[in-house]
UniProtKB/TrEMBL annotation:
Catalytic reaction annotation: N-terminal N-formyl-L-methionyl-[peptide] + H2O = N-terminal L-methionyl-[peptide] + formate
EC supergroup of this enzyme: hydrolase
Lineage, opening ranks: Bacteria, Pseudomonadati, Bacteroidota, Flavobacteriia, Flavobacteriales
Cofactor binding notes: Binds 1 Fe(2+) ion.
GO BP terms: translation
HAMAP family documented for this protein: Pep_deformylase
Protein name: Peptide deformylase
SUPFAM superfamilies: Peptide deformylase (SSF56420)
Organism: Flavobacterium humi
Active site: 148
Cofactor(s) required for function per UniProt: Fe(2+)
GO MF annotation list: metal ion binding; peptide deformylase activity
Length: 194
């Protein structure tokens, strides 16, 4: 089921997600709906807060990045087969040089900015079967995971840009809060009352 994506300004995007238990109601359906929603919006990642749930759950499928001309053949192969569900993720390490990449977010349509992140991460999480894993990732896969992990910590990519850039996008962010953004996927806006 395709869910509406929560827009910038909604308080749920600023909450630190609570841990998910095996008994969480309709967890498999929630995960399936999140994948449907992400694919419908042409995204490569989606966190539960983006569909209104303040829980520690996010999904990633980097397949769309595998067609980019800006990456090596090896990285394209990694991206093509990378699809994961992350439950109760805990970032253990972020290391290596920081590198910039132009990021966007389904909750912040029509806003893209260069964000600097570490090139390599080590993360602990449970998969959809509640099997505990600890894995290392680098490159674009690490970046997508870091972006989605930030969501379950109540952090948005716009928090990681300079104050000058924040000023430049202020009107766009205001428009999103007022429900004036018109992406080609379902959204739920906070729509400020005046």
């Amino acid at each position: 089921m395709i869910l509406p994506i929560v827009g910038y300004g909604d308080p749920v995007l600023r909450k630190v997600g609570v841990e998910v238990t095996k008994e969480y109601p309709n967890l498999n359906e929630t995960i399936a709906s999140m994948y449907d929603t992400m694919y419908n919006a042409c995204g490569v990642g989606l966190a539960a807060p983006q569909v209104g749930l303040a829980i520690r759950l996010f999904i990633v499928d980097t397949e769309p990045f595998s067609d980019s001309d800006d990456i090596s053949k090896e990285e394209a192969e990694q991206l093509k087969g990378f699809k994961r569900t992350f439950i109760n993720a805990k970032m253990l390490k972020e290391e290596g040089e920081e590198w910039g990449f132009n990021e966007g977010c389904l909750s912040i349509p029509d806003v893209r900015e260069d964000v600097y992140r570490n090139e390599k991460i080590t993360i602990e999480y449970y998969d959809e079967n509640f099997t505990k894993k600890t894995e290392e990732f680098d490159g674009l896969i690490a970046r997508v995971i870091q972006h989605e992990y930030d969501h379950i910590e109540g952090i948005l990519f716009t928090d990681k840009i300079s104050s000058l850039k924040k000023q430049l996008i202020k009107k766009k962010l205001q428009n999103i809060m007022e429900g004036k953004a018109r992406p080609d996927y379902r959204m739920k806006f906070i729509a400020k009352k005046r």
